[in-house]
Amino acid sequence: MANSKKTSSDVAKQAAATLRDPNASAIAKSFAGSALAQASTGKQTSAAMEAKASKALQSEKYSDDTKSLAGSVLSQSDKNR
Fold this sequence. Notes:
By secondary structure, the protein is mainly alpha-helical. It has helices spanning 9-20, 26-37, 47-58, 64-75.
């Protein structure tokens, strides 16, 4: 099923900056890649990525930037799951 939601341009810019940042964590880069994939395509967040994003949002160990990307990824998930 195609996703009707798209990553906003602000979040896409944040995601691109995260992917270029050599100090960004692997999980932040994972969320950034997912967010960018959803910026201009009908791709939808996978169940595995939904679970990672949900856990990241509930954890205090992740930065606000990582949580912002996780929130974007999660907001574009399949609501039927």
